[in-house]
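Design a sequence for this backbone.
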């Protein structure tokens, strides 16, 4: 795929690119809405992603071409407010803000790839992380991975979504055939081998697109903060929901506001599910993992209330087909994809039936995308 982008670079800028970064998408096996509660997550980087090709241009201009849409923006570094503003430009603006204390030199850049946008597999984080990594490379800054991840998190919070660290951490640190068990309290992590044998992961895209800023994502985050304060004042002095275990729930249920209790019980149970999922993967017990995925969806839909009818429909539909051993909504929610664990691969007849019945119900054609764990930016970036 990079050759297409390389040709576009050469035809647009009259020379070859000198730097290349690949930023993958993020699949999360389990541990949803736990990252900003200092909890556990179990994601992996995908082989689908965004490629970035760049070279310095000895000018005081940054020229960026989005290969998928052929939009071009030329940013004068002395006045970094471009006249043309495609949707992705807001991400570039935040990144330039993050780099505002250093002397950025002019460069030409082409980016493009095969990540569906607004599908909950972190296309915006891939764009942000890849852009930050290639700017670091272009200027020989050699920042540590921890710094780059943190810069990407800060840039993304600048767009207004009060997200956690899971996506950016995975996009930088992903490894082939491994998932990452990340403890978001101190960002300690371990790689978990995915011994999938004849099992496989598929995403099914509802085609309900979302930008988390337009959803209740921030509201859920705020509810968790409010619940933490309440529990601190009325039950025990915690500073994060991560400090609670399921034994606390029976004490909290009768005394807490009903909605806040639902949010808290989901987070506590999801953290416990992530640790059980790790054990299941270590034992190559994919059936237990599948059951945990279904339980996670139930919590996300009924207690955390971040699902939507299309996601619920796909999960319910999958539970009627024995090839599916687990299914749940993935990412921030309110649309996007389900993550599905299948024994073997999806038979053509089953795929056709699913597409047909989903279309009949919602008038949209879902995309079915096989995914497997691949390398993140750190393993793949190279100077050409
Ligand atoms: C989005 C955010 C992540 C995480 C997930 C939900 O992808 O960017 O930080 O909170 O939602 O698990």
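Sequence:
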């Amino acid at each position: 795929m990079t050759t297409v982008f390389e040709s576009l670079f050469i035809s647009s800028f009259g020379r070859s690119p000198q730097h290349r970064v690949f930023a993958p998408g993020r699949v999360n096996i389990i541990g949803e809405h736990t990252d900003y509660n200092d909890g556990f997550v179990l994601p992996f980087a995908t082989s689908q992603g965004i490629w970035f090709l760049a070279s310095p241009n000895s000018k005081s201009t940054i020229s960026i071409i989005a290969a998928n849409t052929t939009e071009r923006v030329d940013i004068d570094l002395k006045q970094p407010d471009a006249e043309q503003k495609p949707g992705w430009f807001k991400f570039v603006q935040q990144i330039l803000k993050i780099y505002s204390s250093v002397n950025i030199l002019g460069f030409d850049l082409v980016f493009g790839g095969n990540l569906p946008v607004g599908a909950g597999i972190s296309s915006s984080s891939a764009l942000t992380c890849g852009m930050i990594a290639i700017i670091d490379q272009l200027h020989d800054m050699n920042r540590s991975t921890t710094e780059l991840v943190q810069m990407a998190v800060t840039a993304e919070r600048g767009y207004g979504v009060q997200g956690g660290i899971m996506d950016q951490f995975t996009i930088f640190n992903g490894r082939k055939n491994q998932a990452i068990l990340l403890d978001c309290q101190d960002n300690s992590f371990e790689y978990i081998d995915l011994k999938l044998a004849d099992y496989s992961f598929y995403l099914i895209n509802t085609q309900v697109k979302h930008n988390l800023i337009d959803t209740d994502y921030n509201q859920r985050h705020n509810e968790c903060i409010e619940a933490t304060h309440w529990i601190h004042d009325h039950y025990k002095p915690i500073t994060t929901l991560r400090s609670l275990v399921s034994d606390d729930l029976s004490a909290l249920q009768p005394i807490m506001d009903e909605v806040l209790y639902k949010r808290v019980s989901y987070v506590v149970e999801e953290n416990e599910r992530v640790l059980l999922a790790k054990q299941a993967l270590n034992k190559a017990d994919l059936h237990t993992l599948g059951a945990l995925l279904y339980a996670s969806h139930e919590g996300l839909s009924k207690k955390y209330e971040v699902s939507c009818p299309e996601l619920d429909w796909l999960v319910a539909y999958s539970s009627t087909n024995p090839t599916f051993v687990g299914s749940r909504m993935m990412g921030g929610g309110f649309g996007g994809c389900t993550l599905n664990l299948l024994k073997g691969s999806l038979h053509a007849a089953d795929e056709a039936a699913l597409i047909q019945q989903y279309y009949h119900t919602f008038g949209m054609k879902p995309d079915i995308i096989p995914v497997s764990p691949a390398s993140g930016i750190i393993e793949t970036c190279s100077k050409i």
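The pocket of alpha-D-galactopyranose is lined by residues 32-33, 35-36, 122, 163-164, 166-167, 331-332 (CB under 6 Å).
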